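Quick illustration, no need to memorize.
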Amino acid sequence: FGKIRLGADDELPEFRTVSWVCMMFSVGMGIGLMFWGVAEPVFHFGAPPHGLAAAQTKEAALLAMKYSYFHWALHPWAIYAIVGLAIAYFTYRKGLPILISSAFTPLLGKAVAGPIGKTIDILAVLATLFGTATSLGLGAQQINSGLNFLWGTGEGTGIA
């Protein structure tokens, strides 16, 4: 599979592999890591998952870090890569539109050009919209809380 190009047979990559990996890494390190990189282990320290340790103990701290490392390790990147490669393959190799429904062509055939494909694309847009809004909203709440702690600005939806 390493020999399959994402473009035409005679095309060269637009970016080197190192540049591509750096771009993907920086995209994934946005508000998600800035917020959850601290909040998740602190949350698990105070309330260990599944009651596996007593709260605020050394065991809880170790468990919190294990869960956080698991959550931010390679498996989410593998999921992102699989979806991205599926879209890239059908877009740049097969000439289909840059839509999530294009990746369903082997399963659905020409039906991806109809209502089924449009439904898939609408669900993908809504999932992306709500996921992004949630992440940005949680980040805004954290910033609001920090500003309130430092300068007493108050907390609330309008301030956030």
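The helical segments are 17-28, 31-46, 58-72, 74-93, 105-108, 115-151.
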